[in-house]
Design a protein that fits this description.
The protein is of the alpha/beta class. Helices cover 38% and strands 15% of the residues. Residues 459-667 form the GH18 domain.
Length: 711
């Protein structure tokens, strides 16, 4: 069986099960301290104070539990701090001062007979494994001061650098042997143990705590107090306390969740990260201005991840000769575009792999997070996660499915583990229908994840045999809690929408789905039609649904509003791709709350087919579309040759309630067929069909034989 190199060797360690799903697939803007640590590392490497390999080695040497639970950039800070001490760029005292050194009180605070509690080991583990002179079996246990021995140099300071800058009191503390966890108390009822302990490890306790400890068996205490120590008794939390020094050949599977939570929540700045940067600035190892400039560079990559890579891919799509050079010598090809493909901290070699029908490429780094930083910007959290690093090399198809990327059985998956000085980039397939596009426009549909090999849609479509995808573009230019967006933000939203739609069409083509559709519902106000056209949506979307409702007030979807939407839409977009949205629900004029058409039928029947509002006690009126309005809207959509009507939503019609709602069926549904909005649409379609047949010269006998009264 292969021996793992350490807790970082996730490709060798027993796999994290496929039940451990990947973290959030999106991006987040990194916290300021994370960007600060990243910039600091780049500066230290550039100045020759360390090599990037030392950062990796320092992380690999972290305690397994620290490695598993520390956040990504916290591990960087821990590693760099150790490297700075090794190279004597910083001293232990300088780093300790920046940490805000723990107060080493030289004054004797305890006297013979005082009850004290021994602190838990975690109180001193601020950033590295400490040199502990307090044995673990008494951590959290209460005892009694026997004597003050004197003041001594701090051994935990002496252990790192051979210098102590403080002295601390040392005591002999007496403990009941029967109260010490894991000690057999069966034959040791009155026996005691003494341990010499420094003052920094002791906290005041009282006689009640000591007495409570004596009354409880250690096993009971361990079971009752897994997290806290009200009776000064520490519960064992890790079965591997006695062998933390060796490299584990197994993984605590339950900890992946803990680690990922730490990665996902990288917001609070760890003390070591703050102290490292502060100490380097104070000593002048790095300057404030150059750090600011470094952070700006990191910020640029954080805000626009993948921008440089998109330039490279777009040129390869547009220029076959460049593509050939890119696949044979990527560093040289990138230099033609003025792009330095090597990472800023190491002379890396860029290698590009082209996606092909018979071969799908996926990038991972099982040892850390090696990544084409200059082309793709800061790596996403999921790429750095323990789950992805472990599973991508072992079960790539399962991982890809979580991104919606289904790989056919006859397509080979090739995983590229970037663990040394190569950085890999995937050249995605160019979508059909973009042959006439400029490189600038092509860049807008290229995603960062597609250049890693992860992104593709479609697993849900295939799983449930759906007819396609509908995108609800309901509130463009608006964010709840923020209000209306700037024009720049709106444009960015449309670029993202365009990328999504084109990626969907590309996925359809790759799977050979010729009958699957893409539809998009949008708010018709004239401006949205212009933006949809500008960003090429009609080129890949089959139907554009005009949401001609929620106009405001009680009459939220009048016939005039529907006609206006159709008229302005057909001036900008292809009529056959447009549908008129019709609501099967009403809105209260005062509160804006909605209610289903079926509910209106139950409460207000009979409804006048020519009236589109009813009185609602204490709520003003409820505006809705009755059977006549729905019929007229459908007729107008056919008259101006739209693609049809879009119903929101069909289950709200009284005719379908028994089918849609099952056991919640009301005693009455549609009191008669004439109340059904769905049948109103059907009658309009039938009338239009018959009119066209008459126009085409059909005889009365032909008309009577046609089953045009059925949808």
């Amino acid at each position: 069986m292969p021996v793992p190199l350490g807790p970082h060797d996730l490709g060798t360690l027993p796999a994290i099960g496929s039940s451990s799903s990947l973290p959030e697939k999106g991006d987040r803007i990194h916290a300021f301290w994370e960007r600060q640590v990243h910039a600091t590392v780049m500066l230290l490497v550039a100045k020759g104070h360390m090599k990037i390999d030392e950062v990796r080695r320092g992380q690999e040497y972290l305690e397994p539990q620290v490695y598993q639970t520390a956040s990504y950039y916290e591990k960087w800070a821990l590693s760099v701090a150790n490297a700075m001490l090794e190279h004597q760029v910083l001293s232990n005292q300088e780093l300790s001062a920046a940490l805000g050194p723990e107060t080493e009180d030289e004054v004797q605070r305890f006297f013979p007979g005082d009850v004290v509690r021994v602190r838990d080991a975690s109180h001193t583990t601020r950033w590295r494994r400490p040199h502990l002179r307090t044995p673990g079996f008494i951590h959290g246990v209460c005892g009694t001061i026997e004597r003050h021995v004197g003041n001594f140099e701090n051994p935990e300071q002496l252990a790192f650098g051979g210098k102590s800058w403080s002295t601390i009191p040392l005591y002999i503390v007496r403990f009941d042997a029967s109260s010490i966890q894991d000690f057999d108390s069966g034959e040791r009822g009155m026996d005691q143990v003494t341990v010499d302990i420094y003052q920094s490890w002791l906290a005041p306790a009282d006689a009640a705590a000591l007495e409570g400890q004596r009354k409880k068996r250690p096993a009971d205490l361990a079971a009752e107090q897994p997290q806290s120590h009200p009776d000064c008794k520490r519960a064992r939390t890790d079965e591997h306390t006695a062998h933390q020094d060796h490299v584990h050949d197994h993984v605590h599977e339950e900890r992946h969740t803990v680690e990922q939570r730490a990665v996902d929540a990288e917001a609070a700045c760890p003390a070591i990260a703050r102290a490292l940067v502060s100490a380097l600035l104070t000593k002048g190892v790095i300057g404030a201005e150059e750090l600011r400039a470094g952070i700006e560079k990191v910020d640029a990559g954080d805000r626009n991840r993948g921008a440089v890579g998109r330039r490279v891919v777009a040129r390869a799509w547009a220029d076959e000769k460049f593509k050939s050079r890119l696949l044979s010598d990527a560093n040289s090809a990138c230099s033609e575009l003025g792009i330095t493909a090597t990472n800023p901290t190491a002379p890396t070699k860029l290698v590009v792999f082209e996606q092909k029908p018979q071969e799908h490429h996926l990038i991972v780094c099982t040892l850390c997070s090696c990544y084409p930083l200059t082309l793709l910007g800061l790596s996403p959290d999921w790429y750095k996660s323990r789950e992805y690093r472990s599973r991508a090399v072992r079960e790539p198809r399962a991982v890809l499915k979580e991104f919606g990327t289904h790989i056919p059985a006859d397509t080979q998956v090739v995983v590229h583990d970037s663990t040394a000085d190569c950085r890999f980039l995937v050249l995605p397939n160019r979508p059909k229908g973009t042959e006439a596009w400029s490189e600038e426009k092509l860049q807008e549909i290229i995603t960062r994840d597609s250049m890693i090999g992860a992104l593709e849609l479609g697993n849900l479509i295939e799983k449930y045999d759906l007819d396609g995808v509908d995108y609800n573009w309901e509130y463009p230019g608006y964010r709840f809690g923020q209000g209306y967006l700037s024009d720049t933000e709106v444009q960015a939203d449309y670029r993202g929408l365009s990328k999504l739609a084109f990626a969907t069409r590309e996925m359809y083509a790759k799977r050979g789905w010729t009958s699957k559709v893409i539809t998009l519902a949008y708010y018709p106000d004239g401006r949205q039609e212009q933006l949809l056209k500008e960003y090429g949506l009609p080129e890949v979307v089959d139907l554009l649904h005009m949401m001609s409702y929620d106009q405001g007030g009680g009459h939220h979807s009048s016939l005039d509003y529907g006609k206006k939407s159709a008229d302005q839409g057909t001036q900008i977009l292809p009529a056959r791709q447009l549908t008129m949205g019709v609501p099967f629900y009403g809105r209260h004029s005062r509160s804006g709350e909605w209610t289903t058409y079926e509910d209106l039928v139950q409460k207000h029947w009979p409804l006048n087919p020519n009236v589109d509002s009813v009185d609602a006690p204490d709520q003003g009126t409820i505006g809705f579309n009755g059977v006549d309005t729905i019929r007229h809207k459908t007729g107008y959509a056919l008259q101006v040759e739209l693609g049809g009507v879009m119903i929101w939503e069909v289950g709200q019609d009284c005719r379908l309630v028994p089918v849609v709602h099952g056991s919640t069926t009301h005693a009455r549904t549609c009191p008669e067929d004439s109340a059904s909005l769905l049948l109103s649409i059907s009658s309009a379609l039938t009338a239009a069909k018959r009119q066209r047949m008459r126009t085409a010269g059909w005889s009365p006998s032909q008309l009577s034989s046609d089953r045009g009264d059925e949808l």
